[in-house]
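Hey all, sorry for the wall of text incoming. These are the two entities for the joint prediction.
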Amino acid sequence: MTSPVPPALRSTPRASDAAEIRRIIAATQFFRAAEVDIAVELVQEAIDKGAAKSGYHFLFDDTLSGGLRGYACYGPIDGTESSWDFYWIAVDPAAQGKGIGQRLLVASEHDAAAHGARRFWVETSTLALYEPTRRFYHRAGYTDAAALADFYAPGDGKLILFKELGQEPASRELPL
Amino acid sequence: MTSPVPPALRSTPRASDAAEIRRIIAATQFFRAAEVDIAVELVQEAIDKGAAKSGYHFLFDDTLSGGLRGYACYGPIDGTESSWDFYWIAVDPAAQGKGIGQRLLVASEHDAAAHGARRFWVETSTLALYEPTRRFYHRAGYTDAAALADFYAPGDGKLILFKELGQEPASRELPL
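and here's what came out:
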């Protein structure tokens, strides 16, 4: 018996993604209420206008039965030559520990690099709660660039990390 | 003979501001072409929707004859409790050296603090060209928080500065 091949990552948002993303992001408990709303608004805008016009790139990891188990959102930073922001990544808690997050992150980096990104920037919190988030990025080759004290709230700072992109051999097969 | 009293700062955008801001910002030569477009888009959105709905706050410094000689744009940062971004400030080169920039900055800080801002964040470039910009903020009590190398372009980093707000005595007269 062989394992079923997981579906390819999907880059085009569809109508059901907004509710699925709200469900997943709320379930992770890593996002503030305001952040949940922003994340859902971003994907809703991409559904309404089309991803190309929204200025955001998405990758969705679907289950075999057609549900969503993870997604990533990233895009070019206005006013920069080749810096991109990795805005959001979330994986359904029921599907965590299977490398879905790393697959989404690596695929996002490749897609961004293919669109001219040279640096990927990530922001997360300095709170102890986000230690797994920081480990996730450090394992993936990200470097701490700065910590802004009290940015999100008194006692809750912002950590900024980055990674140089485009250092991969061109022949490497894309994980998409 | 007494000097005429300068008009009070204006917070409500008007239709002529978009073209005036494009003129002033282009004249300073401190903004990239993409930034000029973004700055004009922001004020156009505030003109169209009303400043309150746009999420941005503005202060305009008008001349006695009704033209614009400077403006500032700032607002709360989504997902934070009390951090605000000071997005833009520009003063007509023909009117520089008169303290108009400092007046706009101080009035922006007071307005933001009155709306609950605790920290004002500013971003500028690490390029030598922006040394006057950095001096402007340092004189006004801002502290360097971080420098992100190669953020805007290779060799052109982003400097992030901040200032704690709301430390002023409540009785101090607002400069508005």
